[in-house]
Structures are given as structure tokens and as C-alpha cells.
Design brief:
The protein is α+β, with helices and mostly antiparallel strands. Helix content is 39%, strand content 20%.
């Protein structure tokens, strides 16, 4: 016997018992995006590798270690998207969405990174991404944070805290980067192997390392907020003032950085301690230079992303596992003669907006078991007697009560009962 083919490690199935929770979350997200004036854009899963190398940075862990990259039959190097911002910027440039416009866009779908699978983190994972273009002031930063705060509030999630920082302008960050490298070099032996490799390629990320030896070594490191350029400092002050006006609590975290090179000025994260070491639920910030970096006009931009698996895991911890959607009615044909009528009745019920599950032709015992397995609220065994007399006994499975109806009136009677 051939061995069973298994899913690729880190690429998990989402089973029918789980998809109801996914659908409800996705519907809530789409509703929220509409209330804030964001329009959906649907992006390719595969992009040219050059896009991510140029946008994310060739010396980042994502590009060097984590991307799924392959050469297609035309000899082009292609990559499964590891994040959505670069593709969204590429589409905005290519489709002329930025000329005299300030588009607000969002997207949902799978991303791919070849990293170690762990709780709430997979090699194929799903994100909501939110991007706004052409707006330079702190108002849209505050609006996006308010949007994310509303989402957490409406989902009933507590214990998630907002952390803020400013990375300043690209020029100010470069000057600070040189100062930080000079601080880190003599302390290299005290750093973990990953941070030793980051000293010259991504030194700001050393500040955010969770390894205790790295935290101790960087305890007295210079902080970027002390070296901000004047415009960035004013922008950061304006953002904080707006959040206070909105009564959104926050903490300024001077070592908060982002793992992608394109961020500048505002960075923010919503964090929890309920998901283990990987506590970030939502993360984002400004990337004013990315559009030009990819080849478009000089355009300010800000956005954020959230991992849907992690959000669902937090929801399950907070409010419990959501019950899967179940049918309203199970119809089982008792005997071959009843099968056509059962199918016709099921279609009429569906016309009325009733969710119907049908069983195979069978005996009474078999159909009762099938009705129980369906978890439908109501069940009907349809046989020759019901067809001849037209009177039906529709049973509510949990209470055992019967809803009298006829073949002609069942859809309307049941719909009224379900809506009551």
C-alpha cells in the first residue's frame, strides 16, 4: 500500500469546524474597512523576486532565509509573497492609483515564509494588510491606530497594549545607525549569534532582541528618540496628542523597531502576553520612501498588518472556541420513492434562505443517525406516508418538540420559526 501523502510542514489545513470562525472574522474585518473608507485590492500571490529584494532589503532575514523563491520556465526568479505591502505598492504604481489620489486600500490572504513553525505562526499564514497613500501628517497614523483599536474592542479582546516609537527620517536613522554600530561592536561577544550577525546589517533589531544577554548588553545603548530630526519629532508629538484626544492608551517604547528596512517615523505594535514569546498581534507604521524606492513618485504612506491565525488564537483564549455553523434542517428520504421529493423540498427550503443538509436514501435507523451527525436544529424523515398525506412532523432535535407543517407550507413555517 502506498504511504499517505502529508501536507508540507508549516502549511496547515483549515477544517470545516474552523472555517466558521474565519468567515465571521473576515466579515467583521470587511465591515470595519468599509466604515473607514478602505477599498479592497486583490494581489497576486507570486511576484518577481526583485520586488521584495528592493523593498524589504537584500540583507534582511526575510530575503536571505525565509522567502520561497523559484525560477519559472521562462527563467524568471519568482517568489511567493512573504508580506503584502511591497505588492500593494507595486500595484498602486503600475495601475496609476497614485496620480492626484490618496487611495486607502486593504487586502486579505495567504503569505509565505520559511521559518520555524510555532504556536500561531505557520509557513503559510494569513494577513489583513491596510495601506494609505499620499497623506503625510500624523492624522492618518492616528486614524489607523484608532481603526485597529476599534477592531480589538469590537471583537471583545482585552489585555492588548499599544506601543509606539518613531524611527525618524531615513537620514537621521542612518546617522543614529552609525552611532549604534560603534556602541555594539565592542559588546559583540555578549550578544546572541543572531544579533552578532545583525550589528552591521540591521543594528536596530539588536535593541528589540528578547535574549537576556542582548537586553543586558544594550541597556545603556543610545536611543533613536534622542536623535530625531525636528520634523519627525513634531510628527511624533502630533500623533501622541491625537491618540490622547481619542483616549487610546499607549506606551512609548524607545527600542521598538520593525524588521523591514522601509519603515520611517511612526512604528506601532499591539502586544499581548497571552500568546507566548511571539506577542505581537498587529504591527505597522510609516514607509514614506518605499513608493519611490520601487520606482514610483515620491509618496508618503502608512499601513499595518495583522496575522489572522494569531488573532483567532487570541479570540479563542478570550471568548472560547466559536461553535461551527450548523444546518437549520436535515431532510432524509426514507426509501427510493421519496428521494426526488426530498431533493425538491430541500431546494424550496433553500429558496427561503434555510440552510439544509440532505441524507442519503436509507432506513429509519440509518437516517436518524445521519440527522444526529448533521447537528441540524430540525430534522425531517420523508417517506411514502408523508408524501401521501402531505403532513410532516418536523422535529427540533435538542428539545424533541415537533413543528407541524405540510409539504406546501414547510419552508414558510420553518423560516418563521427560525427568525422568531
Amino acid at each position: 500500500m502506498a504511504s499517505t501523502i502529508q501536507a508540507v510542514r508549516g502549511m496547515n489545513d483549515i477544517l470545516p469546524a474552523e472555517t466558521g470562525a474565519w468567515q465571521r472574522l473576515e466579515a467583521a474585518l470587511r465591515d470595519l474597512m468599509a466604515r473607514y473608507g478602505y477599498s479592497e485590492i486583490r494581489l497576486p500571490i507570486v511576484e518577481r523576486t526583485e520586488l521584495f529584494a528592493r523593498a524589504i532589503g537584500e540583507v534582511t532575514d526575510i530575503v536571505e532565509k525565509e522567502m520561497y523563491t523559484f525560477v519559472d520556465r521562462s527563467g524568471d526568479s519568482l517568489t511567493l509573497r512573504p508580506e503584502g505591502t511591497a505588492g500593494c505598492v507595486r500595484a498602486a504604481i503600475e495601475q496609476n492609483l497614485l496620480r492626484g489620489q490618496t487611495p486607502r486600500l486593504y487586502y486579505m490572504g495567504p503569505m509565505f515564509r520559511h521559518e520555524r513553525p510555532q504556536k500561531g505562526r505557520y509557513r503559510q499564514f494569513h494577513q489583513l494588510g491596510v495601506e494609505a497613500f499620499g497623506l503625510a501628517g500624523p492624522d492618518v497614523d492616528a486614524e489607523q491606530i484608532a481603526l485597529s483599536a476599534r477592531l480589538l474592542r469590537e471583537l471583545g479582546l482585552n489585555g492588548v497594549t499599544l506601543e509606539l516609537n518613531s524611527l525618524g527620517s531615513l537620514e537621521a536613522r542612518q546617522r543614529y545607525r552609525e552611532l549604534l554600530v560603534r556602541y555594539l561592536e565592542p559588546r559583540a561577544e555578549a550578544l546572541c549569534p543572531d544579533c552578532r550577525a545583525r550589528i552591521h546589517r540591521s543594528p536596530l533589531r539588536v535593541l528589540d532582541c528578547k535574549v537576556e544577554s542582548c537586553r543586558e548588553a544594550t541597556r545603556d545603548a543610545p536611543l533613536l528618540v534622542d536623535f530625531l530630526d525636528e520634523d519627525s519629532a513634531l510628527h511624533f508629538e502630533g500623533l501622541q496628542a491625537r491618540l490622547r484626544a481619542l483616549e487610546i492608551p499607549f506606551v512609548v517604547n524607545p527600542v521598538l523597531v520593525r524588521g523591514l528596512d522601509y519603515y520611517n517615523r511612526t512604528v506601532f505594535e499591539w502586544k499581548t502576553d497571552r500568546l507566548g514569546a511571539q506577542g505581537t498581534v498587529i504591527a505597522g507604521g510609516r514607509y514614506d520612501g518605499l513608493v519611490r524606492q520601487i520606482g514610483g513618485p515620491d509618496t508618503p504612506a502608512v499601513g499595518f498588518a495583522m496575522g489572522l491565525e494569531r488573532l483567532l488564537a487570541l479570540l479563542e483564549l478570550e471568548v472560547g472556541q466559536a461553535a461551527p455553523e450548523r444546518p437549520d434542517l436535515f431532510i432524509g428520504p426514507f426509501g427510493e420513492a421519496a428521494a426526488p421529493a426530498a431533493l425538491c423540498l430541500a431546494e424550496r427550503a433553500r429558496d427561503a434562505g434555510i440552510r439544509v443538509s440532505t441524507g442519503p436514501v436509507g432506513g429509519l435507523k440509518q437516517l436518524l443517525k445521519a440527522a444526529e451527525r448533521s447537528q441540524a436544529r430540525f430534522m425531517l424523515i420523508l417517506g411514502e406516508q408523508e408524501l401521501a398525506g402531505g403532513e410532516l412532523q418536523v422535529k427540533e432535535q435538542e428539545t424533541g418538540e415537533f413543528l407541524p407543517a405540510s409539504l406546501a407550507t414547510l419552508p414558510e413555517r420553518l423560516k418563521a420559526k427560525l427568525d422568531a
